[in-house]
Amino acid sequence: MANDLALKGADAKAPGVDGQQRRRRATAGFLPALLPALLPALLRDPWFLLLLALVALGLTWAVTGTTPEAVAALWHWSPALLRGLAMNIQISLLAMALGTLVGLVIGALSLSPSWLLRRLTRAYVLLFRNAPILVLVYFTTYVFPFELNLGGWYVPFPDWIKVVIGLGLPASANVAEIFRGAIQSIPSAQWEAAQSLAFRRTQIFRMVVLPQCVRRMLPSWMNLMASITMSTSLASLVGVHDLVDTATVASNTVARSDFTILVYFTLLALFFAYCYPIARWTRYLERRHEHH
């Protein structure tokens, strides 16, 4: 009886303890119930998980605190950051254009009746698909000259063009495989039917095969573009003034820890804003291709 009275007295003196325990138990029960509801959405759309990670990062930055001086410095550096992002976009678009043109040629040659051409194209694809992209960027940066001698005229050969070539090599190897797979996925009956109608091989390829290949290639091509875009961040390692290099220069110039967190969070948000629509469009094309 005395022990019961003592316990009641202790509870009366600390009425908030029991309330805190109830809140902890309610929270502990809420999270396991919430996760099964969110898990299907996360598995269905991994980008939603990345978006949650960005939100969590932003909340973490807000909790750690920032200063008006850091925000003002970010506003001051925002034009330079946008110019850096434009450089990344330019490199990604040109690298994909170069990779697509070369990859289509390599992919077509890989289906050639010539044994030698098939071997050479296969070696090209295996080499540049499995080579680290950073190694290729360094390779093209230091193998190509810094200026070209055109009949006595010296023309600068910028580093960003070398990065375009370095990223275009793996892009071309991947496009070649995508193109070869798309052609081989066309049923042979369509080739035979077109030949029975007296179509020439070039006509069959242009009018029957190529339109179907484009539809089959688009999802994989868009996925490759997103990958190449994210790889453009390596350009800063060879002296290209892209978004990453601009953020690093800004961080070193301002020399404030809160600004460093803010500027790299902005860098992450800019890359996400550029790559996320590409990923969404890729998923849309994949679903459309599955329905057809």
TrEMBL record:
It is a multi-pass membrane protein. The chain crosses the membrane at residues 47-65, 85-111, 123-140, 160-179, 221-241, 261-279. It holds the Pfam family BPD_transp_1. Residues 85-273 form the ABC transmembrane type-1 domain. One of its GO terms (molecular function) is transmembrane transporter activity. GO terms for biological process: amino acid transport. Coiled coil: none annotated. One of its GO terms (cellular component) is ATP-binding cassette (ABC) transporter complex. The keyword Membrane applies. It is found in: Cell inner membrane; Cell membrane. Residues 1-21 are annotated as: Disordered. PROSITE patterns: ABC_TM1. Its main location: membrane. Keywords: Amino-acid transport, Cell membrane, Membrane, Transmembrane, Transmembrane helix, Transport. It comes from the Bacteria. Belongs to the binding-protein-dependent transport system permease family. HisMQ subfamily. This is Amino acid ABC transporter. It comes from Achromobacter spanius. The lineage of its organism: Bacteria, Pseudomonadati, Pseudomonadota, Betaproteobacteria, Burkholderiales.
